[in-house]
Design a protein that fits this description.
Layout: H1 3-21, H2 40-53, E1 61-67, E2 73-79, E3 82-84, E4 87-93, H3 97-104, E5 107-114, E6 119-129, H4 132-141, H5 144-152, H6 162-175, E7 187-201, E8 209-215, E9 221-226
Antiparallel strand pairs: 1-2, 1-5, 3-4, 4-7, 5-6, 6-7, 7-8, 8-9
């Protein structure tokens, strides 16, 4: 082995060892069955409000996991734009990879992670498009540049280079300058109707708190503590 190879090997081993040593001790608070709201939507609202009040960046960011009918998973970060007892809403291009996967397999999982609060929330359920009216209201609440980008971008499809996208955006800016921007047929919202919630609170020694909410046959929510 050459000297350069030995140096690289030593550096690689050092990086691996450093990763193995990376850990934080979670000590902020606990999570008790007697303290949480019996309604997981209200419990989520409390935690989201805390994250927003703490001025965490992108407190409404969530990992969206989808899968093909064959079970091949994919995940990406999207933004939560509305939620209530019916579910959690985000917006995207229906022809994107996630849109195609949801059309074929309308189930998804969401993950909210607020590192500064040592908290995460998992949500899983079925997915359906929101109404055209809901999508239209949200679309026209966005900045004009964001509206135009929805028209300009063939999301998830290959493009020759960035210049193609910028030229398309410039063309649309000229076309709709000062006028209404139409909502594309291929763009709109999805609602994830939850069948499961899990609230996670970091605790010392990795003995974390995990409380899972699931629907009972009667339609109520049952709370179960899970081992970390």
């Amino acid at each position: 082995m050459t000297l350069a190879a030995k140096v690289r090997q030593h550096e690689d081993e050092g990086h691996r060892a450093e990763l193995q040593r990376l850990r934080d001790e979670y000590r902020l608070t606990g999570l008790s069955e007697r303290d949480v709201d019996p309604d997981p939507v209200r419990q989520f609202e409390q935690w989201l409000e805390t994250a927003i009040a703490a001025r965490l960046p992108e407190a409404n960011a969530m990992t969206l996991a989808t899968a093909t009918p064959e079970g091949l998973p994919s995940a990406r970060t999207v933004l939560l734009k509305a939620f209530d007892e019916r579910g959690f809403v985000f917006y995207t291009n229906y022809e994107s990879q996630k849109g195609q996967e949801l059309a074929a397999n309308p189930r998804a999982a969401l993950l909210f992670y607020w590192a500064a609060l040592e908290r995460q929330v998992r949500v899983a359920g079925t997915v359906a498009r929101v109404s055209r009216e809901e999508s239209l209201r949200y679309f026209h609440s966005r900045p004009a540049g964001s509206q135009l980008s929805a028209l300009a971008s063939p999301q998830s499809r290959p493009v020759p280079d960035r210049a193609v996208l910028e030229a398309r955006l410039h063309e649309l800016e000229q076309r709709y300058h000062g006028g209404d921007i139409p909502l594309p047929d291929y763009w709109g919202g999805y609602r994830v109707a939850p069948a499961l919630f899990e609230f996670w609170q970091g605790r010392p020694n990795r003995l974390h708190d995990r409380l899972r909410y699931t629907r009972t046959p009667a339609g109520a929510w049952a709370i179960t503590r899970l081992a970390p």
